[in-house]
């Protein structure tokens, strides 16, 4: 382990030298052995993972960005939901702080095995709070060093999930909490970049406007600017099990992602 990497049972944090932190809260795949019996067998394959994003964005570490990567699956606790479990998108189907359903709507747990309040509280303390403490601490370190910091929250999802949204999702979904989580000039720079290419469909503040991390930590007036990118799996991987990395697709989208990360690095308030 290098001196600029912190690792424990909850996360790995690569500490960079530039004012950018990339958070990938849904790439973890582990389920603790003492919890596995609660889940239906299908859940053990953790199909709703944001697969391979630490690999897809690996180049960002070489550019000087920090990167925070959890170890455990969102099926244990969702690091991008508020601890009080308020829905992110009222009026539509949502997944919970400790999800009880697959993205297709079926139950994750065996009958009677969904976590009760005490178990939810235990998971918050053991897994959720350490991740957020690391996230907040790294943002403050970078902000203090550079005068500002950008938080990029990276996500990916299957392109068609009727339980969560109608039709086919845009390939690239930029979220800024309707412009509240970052400076207008940063939002415009990213929107212009995405609109300037024709390979991928894209939208700004559409179905996915940013989850808890983007909304909680994006404080432009305090020098912390947060954006989320929700990307369709088909841009870089296979959408059917075993959810394999696709070399050609990844190679095609990575230059655009590199431009996006470089824009985040170059931007100044």
Describe this structure in words.
By secondary structure, this protein is an alpha/beta fold. It has one domain: Zn-dependent exopeptidases (Aminopeptidase), CATH 3.40.630. 28% of the residues lie in helices and 15% in strands. It has helices spanning 53-56, 59-62, 117-146, 184-195, 212-217, 247-266, and strands spanning 5-7, 11-14, 20-23, 66-70, 149-157, 172-175, 202-204, 224-232. A hairpin with a 3-residue loop joins strand 1 (5-7) and strand 2 (11-14). The relative contact order is 0.17.
Main attributes of the structure:
269 residues, alpha/beta, Aminopeptidase, eight-stranded mixed sheet, 6 helices
Topology:
Layout: E1 5-7, E2 11-14, E3 20-23, H1 53-56, H2 59-62, E4 66-70, H3 117-146, E5 149-157, E6 172-175, H4 184-195, E7 202-204, H5 212-217, E8 224-232, H6 247-266
Parallel strand pairs: 3-4, 3-5, 5-8, 6-7
Antiparallel strand pairs: 1-2, 2-4, 6-8
**Biggest beta sheet summary:** 8 strands, mixed
Mean pLDDT: 95
Number of domains: 1
Name of the CATH architecture: 3-Layer(aba) Sandwich
The named CATH superfamily: Zn-dependent exopeptidases
Envelope shape: globular
What's the SSE pattern? EEEHHEHEEHEHEH
Question: What is the CATH T-level topology?
Answer: Aminopeptidase
Weakly predicted, low-confidence segments? none
- Quaternary state, please? single chain
Number of E strands: 8
Rg on CA atoms, Å:
18 Å
The termini sit apart by 34 Å
Classify the secondary structure makeup into a structural class. alpha/beta
CATH level-1 class: Alpha Beta
> Which strand order spans the largest sheet, edge to edge or round the barrel?
1-2-4-3-5-8-6-7
Fraction of residues in helices? 25-40%
Number of helices: 6
């Amino acid at each position: 382990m290098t001196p600029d990497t912190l690792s424990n049972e909850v996360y790995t944090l690569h500490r960079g030298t530039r004012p950018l932190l990339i958070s990938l809260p849904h790439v973890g795949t582990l389920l603790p052995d003492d919890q596995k019996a609660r889940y239906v067998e299908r859940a053990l394959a953790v199909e709703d993972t944001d697969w391979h994003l630490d690999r897809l964005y690996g180049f960002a570490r070489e550019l000087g960005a920090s990167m925070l990567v959890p170890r455990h699956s969102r099926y244990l606790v969702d690091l991008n939901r508020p601890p009080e479990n308020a829905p992110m998108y009222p009026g539509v189907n949502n997944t919970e702080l400790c999800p009880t359903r697959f993205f297709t709507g079926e139950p994750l747990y065996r009958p009677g095995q969904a976590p009760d309040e005490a178990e939810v509280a235990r998971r918050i303390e053991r897994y959720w709070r350490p991740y957020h403490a690391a996230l907040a601490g790294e943002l403050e370190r970078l902000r203090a060093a550079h005068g500002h910091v950008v938080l990029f929250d990276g996500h990916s999802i299957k392109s068609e999930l009727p339980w969560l949204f109608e039709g086919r999702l845009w390939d690239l979904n930029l979220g800024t909490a309707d412009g509240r989580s970052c400076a207008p000039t940063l939002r415009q720079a990213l929107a212009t970049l995405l609109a300037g290419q024709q390979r991928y469909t894209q939208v700004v503040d559409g179905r996915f406007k940013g989850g808890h991390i983007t909304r909680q930590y994006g404080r432009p007036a305090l020098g912390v600017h947060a954006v989320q990118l929700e990307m369709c799996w088909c841009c870089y991987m296979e959408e059917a099990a075993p959810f394999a990395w696709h070399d050609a697709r990844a190679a095609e989208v990575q230059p655009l992602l590199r431009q996006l990360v470089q824009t985040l690095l170059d931007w100044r308030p």
